[in-house]
Design goal:
The complex is a heterodimer of chains A (253) and B (313). Chain A contains ten helices and ten strands. With 253 residues, chain A is of the alpha/beta class. A six-stranded mixed beta sheet of chain A has the order 6-7-8-3-9-10, with helices on both faces. In chain A, strands 2-1-4-5 form a four-stranded antiparallel beta sheet, with helices on one face. Chain B has a domain at 2-215. A two-stranded antiparallel ribbon of chain B has the order 1-2. The N and C termini of chain B lie far apart (59 Å). Classes of the chains: A alpha/beta (253), B mainly alpha (313).
């Protein structure tokens, strides 16, 4: 059997008396993995736990066999787990291109010493990074805004930049929290096609998405979450045929 | 002769306060740290310089030591302070500055408390105030130039980009791999080192140090310089430093030239307050707005794009 890229084992997290995540176990393998469920079912909390933004009360998370749930967010990022936030958290006074460049992993110039004294080497690296960033911006149709402040982007464009920034980091695992919300269907479809392309190049996606029709077209595996627990897991086709899935979404047996 | 000497004196002050403004710009303008204890590091630099120079240490070592010891203080303050939210950080460092001032004021053995200590000038007395001031202008602006270069290079590098990202949204920056505690601690250390060097120059120029020279008002004056000139713009904060210094001295000597119904010196603080309110209301970005990140590679891409646009049109 194929080794899981990310293994979540019996993770729980409660806020006050409410269990946001309750004994969740799941495996993420290569490809596009979806996570769906009604609002408040704990999807974003689970993401934040993976990213190290919340510490779980119980359980463990392994990434490529290494336990990660005691690491700081920036260390988890360096391992290759990158996130695009649900509500875009851009650096609004920086340009679109600078937002992209911040995200690049393994930069030589973001250390105090090398930024001052090894200027040649990071300047060389930055040339390559700019080309990469412009290429990704081209895909999400933002390249014409590259030198504008991110604050000038519309809501949909902000979301695109948030996703593009995640891809810029060349992650092993990219967590996307509702990448298609607020984007017109045509472009949303295009984004997912691009994601599929990237997934062939070795990026694994773990995606929360309410627009099931798009997600189910592309996902290779889907987890359904309700009230903090995973209730069903399987291929999109089997999920659609499962009566529990409808009861979760519609609230009735 | 009088007005010329006075003008030169103002220029020395502009240089010294320009260095502190640049250091606050690094901390606040780029990294977003509200350091309301700036004067503490100025004090540490000045007293280090004074005590070491009394012990016969050469002046350049005194200056460097002032910077280093101030940087250590910056690091020590940063450790507990960086766990605090921005507004609490401001209060904590403000208190730190006052504590240091009260310590040098009451511990007589350290530096003779309120009596202060004399500092020997670097430059041998050439028999003229003019020469003395020109020599000091040279020294101060040499240091200012180095500080400006360092902050300017940092601001226009991936390091500066990461700092600005932390200022904009520290949680997002942390999730994008930037260790915010490290960046903040480094910004405070570097900023404190620069303030320490400015303190050394100040002690050297005035030839004495007293606790009364390091009131919290010094911090606020530097803040006015930065906010007026434009945070995250190094040229802006230098202009701010020059304007505030000239305004400060101008109101002091105005009464010597014009007959006014009130003493402008007393009006100064009111005017400063009004000025800062006006700036924040009507031009919150300061006189010059934030300068974007300019690296060699970015500039060439930007120029390439605008030239292809020109060809099309």
């Amino acid at each position: 059997m194929e080794e899981a890229l990310l293994k979540i084992s019996e993770v729980s997290k409660h806020f006050g008396g409410v269990y946001a995540v309750n004994g969740v176990s799941l495996d993420i393998k290569q490809g596009i993995c979806g996570l769906v469920g009604p609002n408040g079912s704990g999807k974003t909390t689970l993401f934040n736990i993976i990213l190290g933004l919340h510490e779980p009360d119980k359980g463990a998370i392994y990434f490529q066999g290494k336990r990660i749930n005691k690491l700081a967010p920036h260390q988890i990022y360096e391992l290759g787990i990158v996130n695009a936030f649900q509500i875009p958290r851009l650096f609004f006074n920086l340009t679109v291109l600078d937002n992209m460049l911040v995200a690049a992993r393994g930069q030589q110039g973001d250390r105090l010493f090398s930024s001052l004294f090894l200027r040649k080497s990071w300047q060389e690296q930055e040339k390559g990074l700019i080309d990469e960033a412009m290429g990704i911006l081209e895909v999400v149709e933002l390249s014409h805004m590259a030198f504008s402040p991110a604050a000038e982007l519309s809501g949909g464009q902000r979301r695109l930049l948030e996703v593009a920034r995640g891809i810029m980091a060349k992650p092993t695992l990219l967590l996307l929290d509702e990448p298609a919300a607020g984007i017109n269907p045509e472009l949303a479809n295009k984004i997912f096609q691009k994601l599929e392309e990237f997934s062939h190049n070795g990026i694994t996606f773990f995606i929360v998405e309410h627009r099931l029709e798009i997600l189910f077209d592309f996902a290779t595996w889907v987890y359904v979450m309700d009230k903090g627990s995973i209730v069903i897991a399987g291929h999109p086709q089997t999920i659609i045929d499962d009566p529990t899935f409808y009861s979760v979404y519609l609230g009735e047996e | 002769m009088g007005p010329l000497l006075y003008g030169l004196d103002v220029i020395v002050y502009i240089g010294i306060f320009g260095i502190i403004s640049l250091s606050l710009n690094l901390e606040f303008g780029f990294a977003g740290l509200a350091n309301f204890g700036k004067v503490a590091f100025f004090l540490v630099g000045a007293y280090t310089y004074a005590l070491l120079s009394q012990a016969g240490v050469p002046f350049y070592l005194c200056l460097i030591a002032g910077g280093l010891i101030s940087a250590i203080f910056g690091l020590v303050v940063s450790l507990p302070a960086l766990r605090l939210r921005a507004d609490y950080l401001a209060i904590a460092v403000l208190a730190f500055g006052e504590i240091l001032r009260l310590i040098v004021k009451s511990e007589y053995w350290l530096a003779r408390g309120d009596w202060g200590i004399r500092v020997l000038p670097i430059f041998p007395w050439a028999g003229s105030h003019l020469v003395y001031r020109l020599e000091n202008i040279g020294l101060v602006f040499f240091c200012l130039g180095i500080c400006f270069l360092v902050v300017q290079l940092l601001a226009n590098s991936p390091y500066g980009r990461a700092m600005r990202a932390i200022r904009e949204d520290e949680v997002a920056a942390e999730a994008l791999g930037k260790n915010r505690s490290k960046f903040k601690a480094q910004a405070l250390m570097l900023g404190s080192a620069m303030a320490g060097i400015a303190g050394g120059l100040y002690a050297q120029y005035l030839q004495y140090v007293l606790p009364g020279m390091f009131m919290p008002m010094v911090t606020f004056t530097v803040w006015i310089m930065v906010l007026l000139g434009g945070p995250a713009n190094n040229w802006g904060v230098l202009i701010g430093a020059a304007l505030v210094e000239i305004f400060d001295r101008g109101t002091n000597i105005l009464k010597d030239y014009i007959a006014l119904p009130v003493d402008p010196t007393n009006l100064q603080y009111i005017l400063f307050g009004a000025l800062i309110i006006f700036v924040l209301l009507y031009r919150p970005q300061g006189l010059l707005k934030e300068s974007g990140i300019k690296t060699k590679a970015l500039r060439s891409v930007f120029n390439g794009r605008s030239s292809t646009k020109d060809k099309r049109s």
